[in-house]
Amino acid sequence: YRDEPSQAEYFERLLTAxxxxxxxxxxxxxxxxxxxxxYGNVRFAIDGQGEPTDAQTTLVSAIDSRALSALGxxxxxxxxxxxxxxxxxxxxxxxxxxxxxxxxxxxxxIGHRIVVAGDPTPLTIVGVVDDARQPLATDxxxxxxxxxxxxxxxx
Length: 155
Fold this sequence. Notes:
Number of helices: 3
Strand order of the largest sheet: 1-2-7-4-6-5
Distance between the termini: 11 Å
Helix content: 10-25%
Largest sheet: 6 strands, mixed, barrel
Structural class: alpha+beta
Low-confidence stretches: 35-39
Shape: globular
Strand content: 25-35%
Mean pLDDT: 81
């Protein structure tokens, strides 16, 4: 793809075409879905608390607005990634319950911002979702997942 918007447009066209097919119940997009094999985590930092380090890592999955529902992942607090979370809009993220407990303990992470290594634009946390089982994972940190809009952070 010549640029990130072109990549996002391709997936929009693909998802629209798939959704029209009668044999497909739900068409959704995600860059990583369980039980995919875990190859590594990305470093991140809570905005205002230093730089991303190896001590703070999580899986990242760029998803569309239908992915969590299609995967059976329920929103616990806040909201999921939505259609309005597109290019040019404030960048948002949804985090797994494990990620929330690990770094915010009893505090509410919604409204807090995080920065992923290699990308200086902070993401505002808008929701917390149930953990997804990671049956092929060998890394104990694998249940920690950061979900971002693929229209804001194309894969």
